Amino acid sequence: MVAALLTVVAGALPAAATAAAATTADGPSARPAPKVELVLDVSGSMKTRDIDGQSRMSAAKQAFNDVIDAVPEEVELGIRTLGADYPGEDKARGCKDTRQLYPVGPIDRTEAKTAVATLSPTGWTPIGPALLGAADDLDGDEGGSRRIVLISDGEDTCGPLDPCEVAREIAAKGVDLVIDTLGLVPNAKIRQQLSCIAGATGGTYTAVQHKEDLSDKVKQLVDRAADPVVTPVPVEGAAACADAPKVEPGLYTDRQPLGTHRWYRVDVLPGQELRASVSVAADRPLADDYGVLLRAVTAHGRELVRGSEAGSGRTDVISSGLRHPEREREDADTDKPAATPVCLEVSNSFAPASAKAADASAPGMPLELTVDVVDGPSDASDTAAFGLGRGWWLLGVLVLAGFLGGLIFGWLSRWRFAVWRTH
After folding, report:
1. What does the angle CA 294 – CA 351 – CA 246 come to, to the nearest 5 degrees?
2. Residue 339 carries which DSSP code?
3. From CA 372, how far away is CA 57, in angstroms rounded?
4. 28 beta partners
5. Is this prediction's pTM over 0.70?
6. How far apart, in whole angstroms, are the C-alpha atoms of residue 149 and residue 10?
7. Of 60, 73, 227, 296, whose CB is crowded by the most CB atoms within 10 A?
């Protein structure tokens, strides 16, 4: 169990370090070092002894020590606690009980381990305030990837400040900050809250409780850490095509309010093909029967093509994609052909699940837009570029067969009716 906790926490660090190491060799233009802050629940319930015969606190301390030993030099690490200092019953004081145990920066392993050793399960579970504090700890103008890893064994006890709403507010700031959560107790409410926190920022939730799940989780985390990190570019879509921001090929992130439209513009040269996809995360309770539509239209409003929903196997993310080829112009200047502006419209039919949920409609839903422009296909069998292509033959055969079948059926019906009347 301790190994599982260590693996999940440490998995966040190499992924960030890989991105930094890839750019360190570039000299002054290299990206800033990635920052990671570990947020540990030190509330009274962490005394419970149900992790391999140890208390939850002991298991967490051992995992932290191992992570501190293994953290790459490129990563700046910090530690924050919640519920570590106030043991009383005053909720107002207990819900302010969060502090930075070790500042984010180059790690001094001995000093960090000494700080962790002083921790003892004590008080409340102010997850929301702790996340706000961790976001401030990682704030800065130098940029770079930032990650919070939250380890907790219970629900937040400091309402009405909802930690899931806090996570959405953090994500809405447009900073490159991801929150991963680990749950130490197999409880549905805890899982729901921690999953919501992680999902709001594009992070992951992991339940650390069964040894038999360890191999699968380790593999998933290793694969995920090995993937190159692509940071979406923040962009704010317009309410109309005429005001749409121009986007180049790449990955973009935006926030879309419920039931609204977002417009973006892409310039496509003759002979090129526009490929676009959009994913919107359902990070809050929603009414049934919702969907996402992606359309490509001309600057004058004529629809070129509309996307089709793509199943990703997930129920919390709805995706749609499209392809649009811009045909060659025979009379166009081949040296400097003029690009055609194509507007991409993203619309959704989301609605709050209840009147209470309507109060939480802001910020908008997390949206990711992928845009690519490639050389257009030249094969007429590519139906995305040339309509039905060879499918016209099949359509013609079906139409002819239907016509002949109708004639034969009509003739037989008239013949049977005539025979019936003669009898």
Report:
1. 30
2. P
3. 48
4. none
5. no
6. 10
7. 60
Amino acid (one-letter) located at 331: D
d(CA 406, CA 246): 53
| Residue 11 falls in which region: left (phi positive, over 0), alpha (psi -120 to 50) or beta | alpha
Alpha helix ranges (H) inside 255-354: none
3-state secondary structure 224-249: HHHCCCCCCEECCCECCHHHCCECCC
Determine contact, residues 278/375, Cβ cutoff 8 Å: no
Residue with tokens 């919640």: 82
Cα-based torsion angle of the residue sequence 20, 21, 26, 30 in order, rounded to the nearest 10 degrees: 10
Give me the average pLDDT of each 10-residue run along the chain (423 residues).
Answer: 48 46 42 80 88 82 78 82 89 91 90 91 91 88 75 83 87 75 82 86 74 39 44 89 94 88 94 90 72 90 81 62 83 70 91 62 80 74 46 72 86 77 66
CB 185 within 8 A of CB 216: no
Read off the tokens for 22.
Answer: 């890839």
Segment 42-91, tens digit of pLDDT: 999 889 887 777 888 888 888 778 778 777 777 788 899 998 888 888 88
Distances (CA, A) of 335 to 206, 294, 331: 55, 33, 12
DSSP secondary structure, 355-410, as one string: HHHHTT--S-EEEEEEEEEEEPP--TT-HHHHTTTTHHHHHHHHHHHHHHHHHHHH
The structure tokens listed for 120 are 């003892």
Distances 167 to 89, 127, 318 between C-alpha atoms, Å? 27, 10, 20
Enclosing H/E stretch for 59: helix 56-70
Q: Which residues, 6 or more positions from 359, have their beta carbon under 8 angstroms from its beta carbon?
A: none
Yes or no: say if 153 and 183 are a contact pair by the CB < 8 Å rule. Answer: yes
pLDDT at 294: 93
Burial grade of 182 (CB within 10 A; 0-12, 13-18, 19 or more) = buried
Q: What is the pLDDT of residues 140-191, one digit of tens each?
A: 766 667 888 888 888 888 877 889 889 888 887 766 678 888 888 778 888 8
Nearest to 193 by CA among 222, 230, 156: 156
Q: Which domains does the chain have, with CATH numbers?
A: 2-226 (3.40.50.410), 233-375 (2.60.120.380)
Residue in this structure with the two tokens 């001094």, named with its chain if needed: 108
Supply 31's token pair.
């990206």
